[in-house]
Specification:
The protein has about 110 residues and is α+β, with helices and mostly antiparallel strands. It is about 20% helix and about 40% strand. It has helices at about 1-15, 65-75, and strands at about 40-55, 55-60, 80-95, 95-110. Strands 2-1-4-3 form a 4-stranded antiparallel β-sheet. A hairpin with a 3-residue loop joins strand 3 and strand 4. It is elongated, with a radius of gyration of 20 Å.
Length: about 110
């Protein structure tokens, strides 16, 4: 009986997980949109936000999509919007040190 309980407990712990928000989008579409009058300021601008853990202990909060978009827009004075956006999630897992980064790349436009 102890063996069965231990096996069930082990399976339960292995199946356990968690969820976390990575950000929110004010506008998202997979279709071509006609934007009101705007100026393309820079193509290929990118921004990242990362989380870091040492021996499983989080040093920072999880990576945040909003922060990555803000970092991309901050590179271009007057930039208010990213179009043609690609979102990548990069992991580095070593066991001792782990990093998880969200990177956004797109075209910065302004009015």
């Amino acid at each position: 009986m102890r063996r069965v309980v231990g096996l069930l407990l082990g399976c339960t712990l292995m199946a356990a997980g968690c969820t976390a928000s990575v950000g929110e989008l004010r506008l998202a579409s997979t279709r071509t949109l006609k934007l009101p009058r705007h100026t393309v300021l820079r193509r290929g601008a990118s921004g990242t936000d990362c989380s870091h853990k040492v021996m499983g202990i989080p040093l920072t909060g999880g990576p945040n999509l909003n922060a990555a978009v803000t970092n991309a827009l901050a590179q271009v004075p007057g930039g208010t919007l990213l179009t043609d956006v690609t979102v990548d999630n990069d992991y580095l897992i070593t066991g001792l040190y782990n990093r998880n980064c969200i990177r956004v790349t797109g075209t910065v436009v302004g009015q």
